Amino acid sequence: MKKWLSLVLVGSSLSAAEMLYIEEEDFFIDSKEVSCKEYSQFITATGYKCPHDWVEGKIPQERTERPVVNVSYKDAESYARWAGKRLPSDKEWLIASREAEKLKIHNFCDDECNDNVAEWTSTPFLYKDRHFRTIRRGYVPKECCDKVPVVHKAPMFEEDRNNSTGFRCVKDNPSNCGSK
User: Fold this and answer.
1) Cα–Cα distance between 82 and 93 in angstroms, integer?
2) What is the mean pLDDT of residues 8-14?
3) Using CA atoms, how far apart are residues 45 and 103, in angstroms rounded to an integer?
4) What b/e string do you get for 36-52 counting C-beta neighbours within 10 Å, with b at 16 or more?
5) Which of 69, 134, 147, 168 is the most buried (most CB within 10 A)?
6) 33, 117 in Cβ contact below 8 A?
7) Do the beta carbons of residue 131 and residue 150 sit within 8 Å?
8) 129: pLDDT confidence band, cut at 50, 70 and 90?
9) What's the angle, vertex CA 132, arms to CA 126 and CA 135, rounded to 5?
10) 140-154 pLDDT per residue, tens
């Protein structure tokens, strides 16, 4: 299981942490997307189906530590529930990406050549009377000398899977559960 219990307050050194605490909204968010290795542990524990691009149900060796992709919204939600977490709302994802940028943590807005993927959020997206979920992706275009991050928002059908969409999870601050 993921070692997410090394929780850190905003402003602390985040080099070894796996979650970022967002004090204003009172939640913890994974500092990185769920990796193929972490998703594989979920599959082993639950018997859940693996992404379609895993040959014979095995992670391609070169992708073990990379973000899991080819997962639907339901797949991501099932993993989050199994891990005792949930998917972030669009607002939470944006707040966390802005806080991470202030702290120079580039796990939300990496250079285009890195393993950054679009990420599922729990926020519904209604467009032309069709129901989607919101996905977010942050990156820094190579041509931007000043490293200004670009954040995209897009709709995606809950059933869709592709090789550029993964997810990260959030957890409410347990000390404040029920106090909101």
Assistant:
1) 20
2) 33
3) 35
4) bebbbebbeeeeeebbe
5) 168
6) yes
7) no
8) confident
9) 110
10) 555 554 555 567 888
The CA R_g of the chain, rounded to the nearest whole Å, is: 16
Residues 6+ apart with CB under 8 A from 142: 111, 112, 113
How far apart CA 56 and CA 175 sit, in angstroms, is: 43
Q: Does position 6 have pLDDT exceeding 60, yes or no?
A: no
Pairing label, strands 130-140, 165-166: unpaired
99: left (phi over 0), alpha (psi -120 to 50) or beta: alpha
Residue 38, sorted as left (phi over 0), alpha (psi -120 to 50) or beta, turns out to be alpha
Q: What is the pLDDT of residues 34-53, one digit of tens each?
A: 999 999 999 999 999 999 99
Comparison of pLDDT for 55 and 96, the residue scoring more: 55
Q: Is 100 left (phi over 0), alpha (psi -120 to 50) or beta?
A: alpha
Q: Over 80: is that where the pLDDT of 73 sits?
A: yes
Residues in the chain: 180
- Cα–Cα nearest to 25, from 96, 117, 108, 128: 96
